[in-house]
Amino acid sequence: MKPRTPPDSPLLFDTVPLVPDFRLELKARKAGHWPVAGADEAGRGPLAGPVVAAAVILDPKRIPEGLNDSKQLSAQRREELFVQILATATVSIASSSSTRIDETDIRKASLDAMRRAICSLAIPASYVLTDGLDVPPGLDCPGQAVVKGDARSVSIAAASIVAKVTRDRMMARAHHVFPDYGFAAHVGYGTAQHRAGIERHGPCSLHRMSFRPLRKTEDGPETDELLSE
């Protein structure tokens, strides 16, 4: 049997980065849903601080240039786009505290923050695009969960930027209240600096006590790696 000839560029479509656009929003509009909101959250993985969600309804005539997954942008560019989004779009922000996360779990707390952000929009959304695998329960409109949504939808990308910048600012302010942990540098993630601060001073009220390595077991503190975002 003659062996198959491999394609000229087998990894072409795996290596081309996704660039968010407005197609999913227009598809929903064509189906009779308008306006369309994008929703995303920031802060699922850190050991400390809230999880913050944002919902954004973009004006199709004034979409800021350069919207993308917040993780693909520099801090300076996120700040610039944050200002532009707030000036041109309808935006709502909500958060779930570390206490709320510990009382439920990070998934439920994230979805609840996202639900509250969506429901608090000054202009009610007719349809919602959310990043990830879940649409928050309890919405007054239908929605669609979009895997890698912040790299596919500009509305979700805008929400990811608003959520990220808002949370980073919250953690920078928290640094002034709890200066022993370095929150301004790592925004609550489990860096060596952060873990050293916990070792020296113990946890503070912002820490998520249900997360490893803060979570206690019958045999003592957990030592496994923290949950990832």
TrEMBL record:
A divalent metal cation binds at residues 40-41, 131. It is found in: Cytoplasm. Its EC number is 3.1.26.4. Manganese or magnesium. Binds 1 divalent metal ion per monomer in the absence of substrate. May bind a second metal ion after substrate binding. Its cofactor is Mn(2+); Mg(2+). Keywords: Cytoplasm, Endonuclease, Hydrolase, Manganese, Metal-binding, Nuclease. One of its GO terms (cellular component) is cytoplasm. It holds the Pfam family RNase_HII. It comes from the Bacteria. One of its GO terms (biological process) is DNA replication, removal of RNA primer. Residues 34-223 form the RNase H type-2 domain. InterPro entries: RNase_HII, RNase_HII/HIII, RNase_HII/HIII_dom, RNaseH-like_sf, RNaseH_sf. It is an enzyme of class 3 (hydrolase). CDD domains: RNase_HII_bacteria_HII_like. GO terms for molecular function: manganese ion binding; RNA binding; RNA-DNA hybrid ribonuclease activity. It catalyses: Endonucleolytic cleavage to 5'-phosphomonoester. Its main location: cytoplasm. The keyword Transmembrane does not apply. HAMAP family: RNase_HII_B. Belongs to the RNase HII family. Endonuclease that specifically degrades the RNA of RNA-DNA hybrids. This is Ribonuclease HII. It comes from Rhizobium laguerreae.
